[in-house]
Design goal:
The protein is of the alpha/beta class. The protein is built from seven helices and six strands. The longest helix is centred in the first third of the chain and has 28 residues.
Length: 210
């Protein structure tokens, strides 16, 4: 059953890569510039067939796309050996700007992610079964660990203003949230969004909620 699920997920992943890079190529051709973030699950990437087919698709991409591609290893379980993680990162690294890893909401020790070649580590919210107080603590631990390792940190889909403000104060490098911008059906050109504007919007929402 697991093998069938992984094969189906691999097909979806390959389709996602082809579609995303096609859109990126078209937009670059018209002069638009942005980073394309593509998630690849740990289960797919840890499969030899998965790595082989992903590498095959990526080799056929124009090298001009690579500075604009970010691959995220998603659903990374806790306890993956550093050597294994380094192998997975290395399988993607030639084809992109950088490789990131999405971690579980509870990480006892970030040491395994040191020296694995990752550009960033992060979380995706909400985290089922984890209280908001615990999430706030995990965000702080994530930021400290990333700074010690001299890599970037990210927290995606921050659900409320309080956590958004807390993550910013902790020094998280990249955040996504409805207070920053809603999800769109298609990418748009990069535009500046001053941190002050985000803080004001989140502060106002936090004040109303409390």
């Amino acid at each position: 059953m697991r093998g069938g699920r992984v094969r189906m997920e691999l097909r979806l992943t390959l389709s996602r890569i082809r579609h995303a890079t096609c859109v990126l190529s078209e937009r670059l051709g018209s002069g638009e510039r942005f980073l394309m973030w593509i998630p690849i699950s740990y289960d797919v990437l840890s499969s030899p067939i998965g790595r082989m087919e992903i590498a095959s698709v990526c080799r056929n991409l124009s090298s001009e796309l690579r500075p604009y591609l970010i691959f995220e290893i998603s659903e990374l379980p806790y306890g993956v050996p550093q050597s294994r993680l380094s192998e997975l990162v290395g399988s993607l690294r030639p084809f992109c700007r950088c490789v990131m890893a999405q971690l579980t909401a509870r990480v006892a020790n970030y040491g395994a992610y040191l020296g694995a070649g990752l550009h960033a580590i992060g979380l995706s919210l909400p985290a089922p079964g984890v209280s908001e107080i615990e999430i706030d603590s995990e965000i702080s631990k994530l930021s400290v660990a990333a700074k010690k390792q001299q890599i970037m940190s990210f927290v995606l889909d921050v659900p409320n203003a309080a956590l958004l403000l807390s993550a910013r104060e902790c020094g998280i490098n990249l955040l996504s949230s409805p207070f920053i911008g809603e999800a769109r059906n298609a990418p748009t050109p990069i535009k500046r969004l001053p941190a002050q504007d985000i803080v004001m919007a989140a502060t106002g929402a936090f004040a109303i909620a409390t």
